[in-house]
Amino acid sequence: MTEQEELATVLDAVREAVPTLRANGMEAEERRWIPEENIQLLEKAGVFRASVPRAHGGLDLGVADQFKVIAEVARGCPSTGWLTMVWLTSTWCASLYPDRAQEEVFAGGSTRVSIVFAPTGTLTPVDGGYRLTGTWHYNSGVRGADWDLLAAMVERPDGTSEELVALVPVAELEVADDWHVSAGAATGSCSTTARDVFVPAHRVVSLEEAMVSATGDRANTGATGRNYGLLGYVLSGVAAAFTGIGR
Fold first, then answer.
1. Between the CA of residue 87 and those of 66, 160, 191, what are the distances in Å?
2. Domains along the chain?
3. Exposed site from 22, 44, 70, 78, fewest CB < 10 Å?
4. What is the mean pLDDT of residues 45-57?
5. 56 CB-side CA count, 13 A
6. pLDDT per residue over 215-241, tens digit each?
């Protein structure tokens, strides 16, 4: 099956799910989190394989095709569309990590990753990696994610500080039920806390080197050609969600 045929299959399945996503909207707002049915419909449609590298069983769709998928989901449910954007773009971010980390994250070919860019945690170097402590707010999608990307600061021996991003299993974090808002309630953008969580070195990267400046050759990603600039890539997903909501 060609990439466009795979995309068409995903889009057809999402279109079939749109009436259900829309019907679940009121329940989602009242619960402050989308129903599990929404997640399972998108899982079955293959949505969460969209930004997983083909080397790990994913669809590895280009940004324009991911836009179509996100927009179609958002047409059914704004909050589910927003979460789809977060999960797809954050999953792509995991492809910037070393091979060992990718093998862990992408093991099933379909995964959900969340992210918080605000460096409100600290990383302390220890043998084999770091100890992570901190609290991150507005963590959209963490309640349904397998992994979380969390920005934190580390102090180097020379007294300088650097912003790193740790890749952590959600099961090792504490998620507070503190998302009480008047709009976007179903995104469940709760606060997340790490208490002295060990993060192996292969799951920690420099924000500047791996996520902002990195372009061109990324040998460890399997040379998929998906060497997008992080900010532009994420904002394209945001635009997709808003486009679908508008429709």
1. 11, 32, 17
2. 3-111+220-246 (1.10.540.10), 115-207 (2.40.110.10)
3. 44
4. 95
5. 29
6. 444 444 444 556 788 888 999 999 999
